[in-house]
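Q: What residues go here?
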């Protein structure tokens, strides 16, 4: 059985809810016969459901873990930082689960040394993080003010990484736009943003480019555009259905190209770095592999996701299927032009080829079937423009986020898709991982071990297929603020105790397992890999004990930090009063 998951939403509702909806008579909930075996026909992924492959990665393959500024740094108003759209959005009532905010998050701003030692423990080759634009330029406009304390913070981080032989991979935009730019110009809805983003990027190249050699302009612009300006689930929370996401994405693509050219013409010769973009994409698999309509719908799903950004960057223009579908639907609505903006011929050639490497963020897969969406005249949205329905197989494991099902074979297919569509570019996997629920204080995360093991193995198979993958980034190093889900979903290799003001980190079992993969540069043989798993799960029980003792430890800390000094001060005061009293009596 396949279950309809999220026809009109970016993120699916839980299956139980969907079944309940279906019982309530919602007709678009589809229950289809699963035809997994039919999927084996793809010629470029013949072994798609093949058994585990033991083998190693090419030498020099880079292993890393990632984070982003707003999700981990905290220190939202410290040392001259300006407000970001996420500071403002998360402070509004009802926008985030439990009204959580990233105000202090993991306190990463104050824990560079601690966190770098966790990375060393993992033997990481690289660390992927992002720079908070308003921490460097509080209003977002460079001529207003550059905050040297912000520069200092990133200098420390970069220097610490390099001292420990960890390569920094830096993202310029991981969603935390300066609030001022949103208020004054409408943020990514306004073309003026291209100039301001370029100024910010140029400042980063100038101040950090002597040490940073890998730059991502954007992280997952799909989410920033769709969830920020179409559904409003993310900051800045605008619901400009049918147009907001397309316009925001249009400006992001232009901004990306401009920054690539700035690096190319002004810095590359001297700094010799690479600049790319990190795009996210779920894989979309046709429900019925023998049905041409489903095959086209699945292709559309991927084109409206990854292709929306990758096609202009590699080929100069939007995917034809997006132009056709959005153009046709706009005409049906009686609009004179398409809701999908167009690039001029000059813009096309300026944008084409602006990618030294492609960052890929990938977490999950959907089954896709054709579904005509006769939206009533006037109503339109990114989701209805695609004419498809997304389905999931309820047997797929989903330990954490509602939208995240573990489907390792989809990863290999997506990587092969990138190879075939964009001329086999150099790829860095910039995000891949799985979450668990907040209530889960279980450090023995064998389901995460399984996820990493299988996804990394599919990546290895893709490399054997000829896909040019150079590095892999586990998402994420730490548990952290998970956007509109607050702290309710934990992606970290390290558990963070958010109840404790010191935000201590505890290794989950997956730390041990990932470390072994890194140490062996892959999967040497079955016996060893099984041993790793067994030992990882054994060692985590002692971390579990430490974590369980944490309330006691924080209580003791409270006693030493507050109670003891208070009692001492009071005793001294009392002694002084008593002495004065004695002296007076003596007089
Ligand atoms: C992609 C986003 O870039 C990242 O910030 C987030 O934590 C993961 N998705 C998981 O939702």
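A:
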């Amino acid at each position: 059985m396949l279950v309809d998951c999220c026809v009109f939403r970016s993120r699916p509702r839980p299956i139980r809810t969907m079944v309940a909806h279906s019982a309530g008579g919602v007709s678009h909930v589809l229950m289809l016969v699963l035809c997994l075996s039919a999927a084996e026909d793809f010629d470029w992924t013949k072994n798609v459901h093949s058994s585990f492959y033991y083998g190693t990665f090419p030498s020099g393959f880079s292993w890393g873990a990632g984070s982003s500024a707003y999700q981990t740094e905290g220190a939202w108003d410290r040392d001259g930082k300006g407000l970001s759209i996420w500071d403002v959005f998360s402070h509004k009532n009802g926008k985030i689960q439990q009204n959580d905010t990233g105000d202090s998050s993991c306190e990463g701003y104050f824990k560079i040394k601690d966190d770098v030692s966790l990375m060393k423990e993992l033997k990481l080759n690289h660390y992927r993080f992002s720079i908070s634009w308003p921490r460097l330029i509080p209003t977002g406009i460079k001529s207003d003010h550059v905050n040297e304390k912000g520069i200092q913070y990133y200098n420390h981080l970069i220097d610490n990484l390099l001292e420990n032989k960890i390569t920094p991979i830096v993202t310029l935009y991981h969603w935390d736009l300066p609030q001022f730019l949103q208020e004054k110009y409408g943020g990514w809805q306004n073309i003026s943003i291209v100039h301001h983003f370029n100024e910010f990027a140029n400042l980063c190249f100038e101040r950090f480019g002597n040490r940073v050699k890998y730059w991502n302009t954007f992280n997952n612009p799909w989410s920033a555009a769709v969830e920020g300006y179409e559904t409003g689930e993310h900051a800045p929370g605008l619901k400009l259905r049918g147009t907001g996401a397309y316009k925001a994405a249009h400006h992001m693509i232009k901004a990306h190209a401009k920054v690539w050219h700035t690096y190319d013409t002004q810095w590359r010769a001297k700094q010799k770095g690479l600049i790319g973009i990190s795009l996210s994409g779920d894989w979309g698999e046709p429900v019925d592999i023998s049905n041409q309509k489903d095959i086209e719908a699945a292709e559309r799903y991927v084109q409206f996701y990854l292709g929306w950004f990758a096609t202009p960057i590699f080929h100069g223009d939007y995917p034809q299927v997006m132009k056709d579908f959005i153009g046709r639907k706009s005409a049906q609505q009686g609009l004179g032009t398409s809701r999908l903006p167009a690039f001029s011929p000059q813009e096309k050639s300026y944008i084409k080829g602006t990618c030294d490497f492609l960052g890929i963020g990938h977490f999950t897969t959907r089954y896709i079937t054709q579904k005509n969406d006769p939206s009533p005249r006037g109503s339109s949205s990114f989701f209805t423009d695609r004419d498809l329905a997304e389905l999931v197989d309820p047997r797929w494991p989903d330990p954490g986020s509602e939208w995240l099902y573990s489907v390792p074979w989809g990863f290999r297919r997506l990587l092969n898709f990138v190879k075939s569509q964009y001329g086999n570019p150099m790829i860095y996997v910039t995000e891949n991982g799985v979450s668990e629920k907040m209530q889960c204080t279980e450090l023995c995360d064998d389901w995460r071990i399984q996820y990493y093991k299988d996804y990394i193995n599919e990546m290895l198979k893709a490399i054997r297929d000829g896909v040019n993958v150079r590095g892999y980034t586990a998402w994420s190093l730490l548990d952290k603020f998970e956007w509109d889900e607050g702290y309710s979903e934990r992606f970290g290799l390290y558990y963070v105790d958010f109840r404790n003001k010191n935000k201590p980190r505890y290794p989950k079992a997956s730390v041990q397992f990932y470390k072994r993969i890194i140490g062996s540069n892959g999967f040497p043989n079955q016996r060893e890999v099984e041993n790793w798993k067994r030992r990882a799960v054994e060692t985590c029980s002692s971390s579990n004990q430490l974590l369980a003792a944490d309330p006691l430890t924080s209580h003791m800390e409270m006693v030493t930090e507050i109670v003891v000094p208070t009692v001492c001060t009071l005793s001294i005061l009392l002694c002084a009063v008593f002495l004065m009293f004695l002296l007076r009596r003596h007089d």
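A: Context that may help when evaluating the design: The first helix runs from residue 15 to 23. Residues 68, 71, 219-220, 280, 361, 431, 482, 491 surround 1-deoxynojirimycin (CB under 6 Å).
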